[in-house]
Design goal:
Mean pLDDT: 86
Structural class: mainly alpha
Largest sheet: none
Protein name: COX assembly mitochondrial protein
Order of helices and strands: HHHHHHH
Radius of gyration: 20 Å
Region (Disordered): 1-23
Low-confidence stretches: none
Strand content: under 5%
Subcellular location: Mitochondrion
Family: Belongs to the CMC family.
GO cellular component, one term: mitochondrion
Distance between the termini: 51 Å
Length: 122
């Protein structure tokens, strides 16, 4: 029997078998998919809220003509999102938030969505 640890041990250790809560390493899928997803969500809700609202209003008011009528709002929204998506400070903030959420999940076994759903039902 070998004393060698499994490559996946850090993903199955911890109090709930969900990984080490203190592990700060990131997998490829986290770097390339999950953190960029978090960046898009935060940019839309926190940084580009007005642009998202303006584009949504234009779409609502123009129906099938939105492709033609909402070009300016769409362009403004894309510019805002791109600005934040390329901002290193914002990227680092999102990475830290993601790691904190992942750590909390690994400690408790409860996802952020589950916590929010429980809080809203009280």
């Amino acid at each position: 029997m070998s004393n060698k640890k499994s490559v996946y041990e850090k993903y199955t250790s911890g109090p709930h078998g969900l990984g080490d809560p203190d592990d700060l390493s990131l997998r490829k899928v986290e770097l390339e998919v999950l953190i960029p997803k978090k960046m898009r969500e935060l940019a839309k809700t926190e940084k580009c809220f007005k642009e998202v609202e303006d584009f949504g209003e234009c779409c609502k008011n123009n129906g099938v003509l939105l492709v033609v009528k909402c070009r300016e709002q769409n362009s403004t929204l894309k510019d805002c999102l791109t600005k934040w998506y390329n901002d290193d400070g914002f990227k680092e903030k999102c990475k830290k938030e993601y790691l904190a959420e992942r750590s909390e999940y690994r400690k408790t076994g409860v996802t952020l969505k589950e916590k929010q759903r429980l809080a809203s039902s009280m």
